[in-house]
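User: Hey, my collaborator sent me this sequence without any context and asked if I could get a structure. I don't really work with proteins. Can you help?
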Amino acid sequence: GTWVEVFYHDAEFAAGDGDGGGSTTTMEFGAVVGHDDRWFDLNPAGGWYAGLAASGSFPLEPHGATSPWTVRGAGRAYYLWSPSPRHTLAAFGGFGLTFGEPLATQFESLGDRFQLLALDPREGLGRAKLYVVSEWRHLCTWNLDANFFHVVWLRGLQGVLTVGFGSTSERDSFEGLFGLDRLYFEVGYGLRAFVDYAGVQTGVIALDVATPLGFVDSSFGFLDRIRPDPDDETTWRPRSSVFGIPFRVHLTFTQTY
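Assistant: No problem. I've predicted the 3D structure and written it out in structure-token form, which is a compact way to encode the shape of the chain:
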């Protein structure tokens, strides 16, 4: 159903990109409103979700500081459709905007398991972002009863094929969105293990591997380097790769309470 959430948090951030410039503490207030009618929480097979979020932050320390400060907005939508009991098609996307004087760690980022799997969280940072991802989820097997030391029971396995796209703007302005050097693509595959902890508490263990693709010097191909700022090659770093193919791995655990 429809829901509203209000939040605040007090967090300490680095003042720069690892330049030893000290730190600052900010307070953030925000709210989220949305609607969610997806059914079967751990493996939703149908329904849709849409949500909007807004927040603002201001400095607490050092005393008397007037920056950094931010006003942020974001949105996310999700749609699920199952043409058959063993197959589910999922599509989701979202956007983010940051106004004000953000710290390096407060810029919009695409690198996340719930956005673009293949990207590093510090990659392609900007004031605006947009992303779209599609998934084909196919059930490999179900009705299992594999017991691991009487602690975890494996109930089923699901495969997930992922294709995604995203873009971010420049750090100093909202320009550059959809510029060739700020277009990111990914293709990946993952496994979902549906388990019962202690035989009663349901959960999902997810293992995902994804490869990033994009444009470097107007040529499309693998992104073999992490680029925090696509316009500044001094910030670029090597990315993990196998046989010349770059990749990123995610291992996550989800459970109900």
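In plain terms: The first strand starts at residue 2 and ends at 14. You can pass these tokens on to your collaborator as they are.
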